[in-house]
Amino acid sequence: MTLERFRNTVAGRPCESATGRWFTTANPFDGRDWAELPRCGPEDAEAAIEAAHAAFTKGPWPAMTATNRGKLLRRLGDLVARDAEKLAAMEVRDNGKLYAEMLGQLRYIPEWFHYYGGLADKIEGGVLPLDKPDVFTYTKREPLGVIVCITPWNSPLMLLTWKLAPALAAGNTVVIKPSEFTSCSTLALMELVREAGFPNGVVNTVTGYGAEVGPSLCEHRHVAKVAFTGGDATGAAVYAAAAKGIKHVTLELGGKSPNIIFADANLDHAVKGAISGIFAASGQTCIAGSRLLVQRSVYEEVSRRIVDFASQAKLGNPMEAATQVGPITTQPQREKVLSYIDVARSEGARCLLGGGKPEAPELAQGWFVQPTIFGEVSNSMRIAQEEVFGPVLSIIPFEDEDHAVEIANDSLYGLAAGIWTTDIRRALRLPDRIRAGTVWVNTYRAVSVMAPFGGYKRSGIGRENGQSAIDEYLQTKSVWINLAEDVPNPFVMR
After folding, report:
1. 136 partner at 20 to 30 Å CA-CA among 172, 230, 233, 341?
2. What value does the mean pLDDT of the chain take?
3. Is 456 helix (H, G, I), strand (E, B) or coil?
4. Is 387 marked active-site?
5. Who contacts 373 (Cβ-Cβ below 8 Å, separation ≥6)?
């Protein structure tokens, strides 16, 4: 079988790695390698950053008006919309998520380029009514410089776009390091960046293994900021590396999100929300509702309904419309998920459904894990405290609202939470008590280009999406102009 070969883009030109080395990526559905990508190292990271720095400091990009930057972004969004089906199919081949989900993402991604394209020329400073005489003072909002975007394997283009669109709208240049497991769609996007007309060097890519290129990207003298999405352990390492150069960071990290069902909830809706929260995308989302908190009076009924519903889920080829649960994206991640299932059993959790690999012979070559549900879970168990990142649900009972809040907040993470209730007072009151960056009421796993997204505690630093995201890629400059005719005393601060 001939493997497809992808190349990076540096300074507007397709390129291989400096050493000529390659690595392969596999299709999670059948476990077969299907593409080759450049295996980059420090020399390649240096070249990409230097290209981005050159594009930021000279040439057409810094001279371009904000309005024209916005036009380029909107043009890129239109091109992504045009190629949505092709890019979605590529992502399915690379990460194994359902085609229906990836196509939905690709059809929504253009909205980020349109939204931030529209914001590009709305970045304003202001004139200050200063408390000093004879001085005209104003502020400007300026780009940071070279931004390194490090993206994960679960939603490659969506989570890249959350960084790329506001970074470019603000006037920065970018170096992208995609996950070694799912780089292909990012490199395909670069063809559209060129077609849209972005100047050479404004957007560059570096593929390969994090340990081989990550430090060079995070510590380079010309890098102003690192925007990272991934696990909290790797995020801490990125944070430490960026801190050596006092660089800006945005960290969108893991979660152990509570999805809380009260006895007064519409249980039909709540059960579907619980299923969507954990088994959609095979649980491979940072916002997965992996802790299902259920009020004691409906605990048995909700548990039974969820088991019945999840037991009917169809595992299979993610490109087929009938498939509801696809494979785990990477082989190491599948082994991690299976190991957590063993840990849960050893700690006394009761397996209500699943708990291993599917037995169907047509799934044997793929990296599948059965939808798995544990009951009788204590919030102190590892299965309730540590991010599994797979289709594994822990059901935890609670007594009343105070108890639910106590359990929900008893976590190192604070990315998201769900609340299911028909009590409007609770719906308005409870989000204030939950320590999470996003709280959904009577829905789950919804995102919007307009709604800021990010975490509390170990779930991250900074926000993506919405108008506040563009602030993450800007810095403020104060300009003072002396209007006085006489020169003040040079030895006294004004």
Report:
1. 172
2. 97
3. strand
4. no
5. 303, 306, 307, 310, 351, 352, 353, 354, 392, 393, 395
User: CA 320, CA 326: separation in Å to the nearest integer?
Assistant: 10
What confidence tens digit (pLDDT) does each residue in 371-386 have? 999 999 999 999 999 9
Question: DSSP label at 183?
Answer: -
Could you tell me whether strands 372-375 and 392-398 are parallel, antiparallel, or unpaired per DSSP bridges? parallel
Q: Per this entry, what is the length of the chain?
A: 494
pLDDT at 247 over 80: yes
Q: Rounded to an integer, what distance in angstroms lies between the CA atom of residue 292 and that of residue 90?
A: 33
Instruction: Transcribe 298-363 into DSSP letters.
Output: GHHHHHHHHHHHHHTPPB--TTSTT--B---SSHHHHHHHHHHHHHHHHTT-EEEE--S----GGG
Strand partners, 248: 225
CA-wise closest residue to 150 among 21, 18, 247: 247
Tokens of 201: 């060097």
Query: 18-71: per-residue pLDDT in tens?
Result: 999 999 999 999 999 999 999 999 999 999 999 999 999 999 999 999 999 999
What residue spans of 24-65 are helical by DSSP H? 42-57, 60-63
State the pLDDT at residue 303. Answer: 98
Under 8 Å between Cβ of 250 and 230: no
State the catalytic residue, choosing from 50, 252, 387, 472.
252
* Annotated catalytic residue within 16, 149, 286, 387: 286
Whole-angstrom distance, CA of residue 467 vs CA of residue 479: 24
pLDDT of 211 > 90? The answer is: yes
CB contact at 8 A, 290 and 411: no
- Tell how many helices (H) and how many strands (E) occur in the chain: 17, 23
pLDDT per position as a tens digit, 140-183 = 999 999 999 999 999 999 999 999 999 999 999 999 999 999 99
Q: Count Cβ atoms within 10 A of the Cβ of residue 65 and give its class: 0-12 exposed, 13-18 middle, 19 or more buried.
A: exposed
491 has a pLDDT exceeding 90 = no
Q: Which two tokens stand for residue 439?
A: 């709280």
Does 492 have pLDDT greater than 90?
no
Quick one: which of 472, 478, 477 has its CA closest to 119? 472
Helices (H), 146-220: 156-169, 184-196, 210-219
Q: How many Cβ atoms sit within 10 Å of the Cβ of residue 86? A: 12
